[in-house]
Amino acid sequence: MNSLFYLIKKPITPSLFLLRLFLTKRPLSPPIAPSTTHPQNPLTPRPPAPTAVAMAFVKAQKTKAYFKRYQVPFKRRREGKTDYRARVRLINQDKNKYNTPKYRFVVRFTKKDIIAQIVSASIAGDLVLAAAYSHELPHFGLEVGLTNYAAAYATGLLLARRVLKKLEMDEEYEGNVEATGEDYSVEPGDSRRPFRALLDVGLIRTTTGNRVFGALKGALDGGLDIPHSEKRFAGFDKETKQLDPEVHRKYIFGGHVAAYMRTLAEDEPERYQSHFSEYHKRGLEADNLEELYKKVHAAIRADPTPKKSEKAPPKEHKRYNLKKLTYEERKASLIERLNALNSAAGNDDDDDDEEEDDE
Questions:
Q1: Do the strands 198-200 and 127-133 form a parallel or antiparallel pair, or are they unpaired?
Q2: What is the pTM of this model?
Q3: 230: CATH
Q4: Is residue 147 domain-resident?
Q5: What's the count of helices (H) and strands (E) in the chain, helices before strands?
């Protein structure tokens, strides 16, 4: 073994190479053909080899400890209504700010309405400081198109002016009176700081040009201080990374609706008459929409207080059941019956006396 190791370790020469090849070469045995019969019973054919089978789904077994420690999620999380990860970050206040509420500018959309609120969180529940709805806009002159981008802007403007008037800050912070479509941020005044709130969009997908940012723009022009970026306003170009004020202004004053009205009137007149029937009833055309929205904005700034709708007095319905009597009425009725019984008993006694006298 030592000599072999010595041969291997010596410098390689042709003869040494042949010797090493001879010592390490192994005889090659012919390949063995696979048997086609069963190993135990030669008369039984061998079963086919199993093929690869995908692993079946195995259900994870929950232990007793799992069910014992299980905590049910919040109700609004189970219903898919609240994003608690975002909510915690919106309502978490600094620990050195005692009894200072953190306000949120909440915007929600339904099929026929736009809801905008200024909300603060408390242990007992959320407190609404002020609210504005798009169904209030008919009081200010806008009766149609209550769910589009322009209506969202008007609703945000209405809420901003309403909450500032409630806090007696409307004269100091007038906001952007003329809507030009450019980005606007309120500057601090001399006496009081501007009212600050954080945008709460809920589960809305925050795409560029979404209506929720129309409400945000209305609140900003109304005088509220809301942290924001112009990247999500309608008219922002992703390639140039700049906001086009003209495009944004067109959306604020319903220019996109007017453009669709003109296109539909040319291509499909019948559908145009049915689709914009409420506009036709009020004499609204594509050319006078901008003037309408300007009047609405001016009316909101003039008096943003909520208007009570005039309701007709309730109709008096005929009562078919007996009215429940009070204690005094029941007592008086009992006295009347007793008096009637006493008087009837007195008359009977008089008749008996007269009969005895006759006898």
A1: unpaired
A2: 0.72
A3: 3.30.420.100
A4: yes
A5: 13, 6
Mean pLDDT, the chain, as a whole number? 87
Give the SS3 label for residue 194: coil
- Are 155 and 133 within 8 A, CB to CB? yes
CA distance readout (Å), 162 to 129, 132, 169, 221: 10, 8, 10, 13
How much of the chain is helix, strand and coil, in % rounded to 5? 45, 10, 50
Q: Which helix (H) or strand (E) covers residue 198, if one does?
A: strand 198-200
Q: Which residue do the tokens 């009020």 mark?
A: 282
Confidence class for position 115, pLDDT limits 50, 70, 90: very high
Cα dihedral: 54, 57, 63, 65 (round 10): 100
Residue ranges of alpha helices (H) inside the chain are 2-9, 14-24, 64-69, 75-78, 84-91, 149-166, 211-222, 245-252, 255-267, 269-275, 277-281, 289-302, 327-358
Written as one string, the DSSP assignment of 161-192 is HHHHHHTT-TTT----SS--SS---PPP-SSS
Whether residue 183 lies inside any domain: the answer is yes
Q: Which has the higher per-residue pLDDT, 84 or 25? A: 84
Is residue 187 within 8 A of residue 157, CB to CB? The reply is: no
Quick check: is 58 in a domain?
Answer: no
Count of domains for the chain: 1
Distance from C-alpha of 283 to C-alpha of 264, rounded to nearest angstrom: 17
Stronger pLDDT, 191 or 18, i.e. the higher one: 191
Q: Among 27-31, 95-99, 166-170, 331-335, whose mean pLDDT is lowest?
A: 27-31
Q: Show the domain range for 133.
A: 73-302
